[in-house]
Q: What sequence folds into this?
């Protein structure tokens, strides 16, 4: 590689490989540092690169890069899945002896906002900058990013206390719709960024799970508003 144009073309080719999460290229040394979910072979890389680029690595003992695989998405998202299980159990227990789907959904949404805002407050100063990486409104307003954990807390308490429910549903639809747009754009962009849904205390990658989480909340908010 001799120029920034080379770096750009190589980056586009390699990032398009399956199981490649992220990569960094040092033009001066010609080295490439890759973050992968599965070990890549030199053959795989050669097939997608232009003929003038010949990939190699320092150790010639085998035909794969001497690097460890990134933690699988399932392991990375384990804290998120575990929290969802607790939210479901908590919402069920709040129903006591009369389980009604509408009450369950409202309590689930309330617990969701309260619990997720708690994690955001664990690193309140660091949250806005991470959130601004993908939320369209937080990118334009630092005030919104700083206020977001408080907004979630208030919405959660409103839902759990059954106070001004219609307002809470409408607010939920608005703020989560904005965030969902940013999540979709980030997933299509393929740039690896962290998800701020659990703040910065727990490092979670931006994945389809984040999109599903937002859509689930949106569907419940719309259903409750129509109901």
A:
């Amino acid at each position: 590689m001799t120029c920034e144009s080379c770096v750009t073309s190589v980056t586009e080719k390699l990032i398009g490989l399956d199981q490649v999460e992220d990569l960094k290229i040092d033009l001066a040394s010609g080295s490439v540092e890759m973050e992968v979910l599965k070990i890549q072979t030199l053959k795989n890389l050669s097939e997608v690169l232009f003929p003038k680029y010949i990939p190699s690595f320092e150790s010639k003992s085998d035909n794969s890069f001497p690097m460890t695989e990134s933690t699988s998405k399932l392991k990375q998202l384990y804290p998120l899945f575990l929290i969802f299980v607790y939210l479901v159990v908590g919402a069920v227990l709040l129903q006591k002896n009369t389980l009604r789907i509408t009450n369950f959904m409202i309590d689930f949404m309330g617990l969701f906002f309260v619990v997720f805002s708690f994690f955001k407050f664990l690193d309140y100063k660091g949250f806005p900058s991470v959130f601004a990486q993908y939320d369209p409104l937080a990118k334009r307003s630092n005030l919104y990013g700083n206020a977001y954990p408080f907004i979630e807390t208030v919405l959660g308490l409103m839902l759990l206390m059954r106070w001004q429910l219609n307002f809470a549903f409408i607010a939920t639809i608005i703020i989560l719709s904005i965030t969902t747009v940013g999540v979709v754009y980030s997933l299509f962009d393929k740039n690896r960024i962290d998800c701020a849904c659990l703040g910065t205390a727990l490092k979670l990658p931006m994945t389809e799970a984040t999109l599903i989480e937002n859509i689930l909340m949106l569907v419940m908010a719309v259903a409750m508003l129509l109901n």
